Amino acid sequence: MSKINERLKKLHTIALVVALAVFLLVVVYEIHNLDNNSKRYLSEHYISEGVRETGAINLVTSVLYDYRAFDTLGEATVILTAAAILSLLVPVSKATMLGTKFSIIVYQTTKFSIPFLAVLGVHLIFFGHLSPGGGFVGGVVLSIIPILLTITYGVEFSESKLKPAKKKLVEDIGAIGFILLGLLGVVTGSNFLANGQANFGPGNTGELISAGLIPYLNVMIGIKVGAGLAIIFNSLIKEK
């Protein structure tokens, strides 16, 4: 009976893999056969009208936080869900990486690097609409700080400096703040997560305070991603 169950599990796994492969092949085929004009229309619109409509010089950011902000919300939700499951639902017996010993060079290098990582992360977040960067990238850089502390000094030290409850609170603030900013578009009579379309005003293009809601959305995503990735990392390296 156990052998039959094992075979059924293997067949179930194989069936899922085959179904996923077929689905991906269909998606790739449909994308490949899209009309060339329809594929170029959106990219041409973003390039020619992006700065005027959103006020963001960084067109990647204008797409992520204006034209396709729903996608960004979905990606942030994935991180939020993963962090919540790992930190709340998975029991932990003890933490690994506590006995690792490094040389004094590693410890000093970590201390030396942290201020630079903090400045770089904050710069990427606040200037993401003006230069390469943005909330996601800045959040990833900021998450390296607690991850470095964990790797170098251990989980207990890292979590004594940056409490898990505080990281979870920061992540929640980022997620809720992003949604509340999105609702401002509805309040103004436009759509959820609308920016240029809701007439928030792009300001003077090229200045720090410009591009409507995009800088504030960058901040919310930055703190949310930074805290979320730090939570996920510490949860994954703990023995269950």
UniProtKB/TrEMBL annotation:
> Which residues span the membrane?
12-32, 73-92, 112-130, 136-155, 175-194, 214-237
> Membrane topology type, per the record?
Multi-pass membrane protein
Q: Which residues form the MrpA C-terminal/MbhE domain?
A: 14-88
Enumerate the UniProt keywords alphabetically.
Cell membrane, Membrane, Transmembrane, Transmembrane helix
Q: Which InterPro entries does the record associate with it?
A: CPA3_antiporter_subunitB, MnhB, MrpA_C/MbhE
Q: Could you confirm whether the keyword RNA-binding appears in this record?
A: no
List the GO terms this entry assigns under cellular component, sorted alphabetically: plasma membrane
The answer to whether the entry has keyword 4Fe-4S is no
- Where does the record say this protein resides? Cell membrane
> Where's the Na+/H+ antiporter MnhB subunit-related protein domain?
107-229
Q: Which family does it belong to?
A: Belongs to the CPA3 antiporters (TC 2.A.63) subunit B family.
Protein name, as recorded: Sodium:proton antiporter
Organism of origin is Aquibacillus halophilus
Record lineage = Bacteria, Bacillati, Bacillota, Bacilli, Bacillales
